[in-house]
Amino acid sequence: MKIQNGYLDLIKAAISDFKRSKIRTFLTSLGIMIGVLSVVLLIALGIGLKNYLQRQFESLGANLIIIFPGNISSSEEGGGLGNFGAGFAGGANFDEKDYISLSRINEADYVVPLFMKSSVIESDGERKLGYLMGSSEDSFKILNLEILEGNFFTKGDVSSRAKKAVIGESLADNLYDAPQDAVGKTVRVSDQRFKVIGVYKKKGDREQDNAAVVPYRTTFGTLNPDETFFTIYLGTTDKDKVEEVKKKAEEVLLKRYDKDDFTVTEQSELLSTINQIFNIVNGVLVAIGSISLLVGGIGIMNIMYATVTERTKEVGIRRAVGATERDILNQFLAESILLSLFGGLLGLVLAFLIVLGIRAFFPASINLFSVVITLVISSGIGIFFGVFPARRAAKLPPIEAIRYE
Fold it and tell me: Ranges for the ABC3 transporter permease C-terminal domain (predicted)?
């Protein structure tokens, strides 16, 4: 009980001193507050981006095989995380011949090519930045898109290179008074005109929600002069056939390309690779945010050092009436820790409010780990950077301290 009372007295004394210097207390904690805010927000945004990508892949269905240009496979030498970006930048240029060859795989229930580019989409005098997606009639199934108004295009539209488009609800909102008004209208992309035959419901994906999906063969020429695809999806309704489809897809592509020119991966494998990447990214973000915490700690040390100088006479009087070096050390150390915790809690509260505000637009999330880590770090900084000024106060000779002016 005596020890507990001693700690309570230290806390009360520290709080009493803080009340006498409210502005200094806030400014001293400001560095820690900004550091904690930075670390928690960076982790929350990293988790949000990870959640966003996971949702998009999960919405494609579980039994999905994705073919990318380049080698991004973690199981191959030269691939893995270090080659993830290079995989998208180089490798095979998939074309209609590959799509037709892959379509002959009996175990695959559907094969979907995808061409995509950022484009200015115009209609009724409105110009909006969106995305042009060239694909097949099965793309609506694989992307789990639901029709809001009108209809999707058909296999016959793909074969005949029909100038038809199905647009996202967000794009329709931006171009017209209401999504329902879009059907029957004409949109223009790079001097090509398309009749809007349908509008699909929002999915929460900015690219898809602002896209105009057209038959892939219609893009050949001005919009897609190389007649290539960014990626090709294969799907099966039977999860037991996923490995077989994957193996046969590799065999088909190896007849035309080298092994390092493409990657055939399952959705689960791609998510695993993405998770590894984000673990590394989050580590880097935490390290960057921790620099703010370090600066805040140095600020606490400087202020506490100045505080010791200001209160030299007070320390001398306390020593004269029986306070030990340990008592003085604990007093100033307690103030440092409380300042750090105060700043840490302020930073956490602000981070929670900011994340709460952006959750309507982005799936950012604060996890328990980041909260615990930042509080431990902030209190640890108070101890680490508070030791030097606290020891200086404790070592002051009582007589000289009393005489100090």
Answer: 288-398
Pair (156, 304) in one structural domain: no
Please tell me the total count of domains within the chain: 2
Measured in residues, the chain has a length of: 405
Domain span at 131: 93-256
70 inside domain: no
Other Cβ atoms closer than 10 A to 4: 8
| 76 inside domain | no
Query: What are the percentages of helix, strand and coil residues in the chain, rounded to 5?
Result: 60, 20, 25
Domain C-terminal end among 206, 229, 256: 256
Provide the whole-model pTM.
Answer: 0.60
- Which backbone phi and psi does 191 adopt, to 5 degrees? 70, 5
How far apart are the C-alpha atoms of 170 and 168, rounded to whole Å?
A: 6
Give the E-state strand segments of 90-191 in sequence order.
Answer: 94-95, 110-123, 126-135, 147-150, 164-168, 186-189
Give the C-alpha distances (Å, rounded to integers) separating 194 from 151, 210, 305, 373. Answer: 14, 15, 71, 54
Nearest by Cα to 111 from 218, 214, 255, 264: 264
Show which of 223, 256, 289 is a domain's final residue: 256
For residue range 279-331, what is the model confidence (pLDDT) as tens digits?
787 777 777 777 777 777 787 777 777 777 777 777 777 777 777 778 777 77
Question: Burial level of 99, CB count in 10 A (0-12/13-18/19+)?
Answer: middle
Q: What is the DSSP letter of 226?
A: T
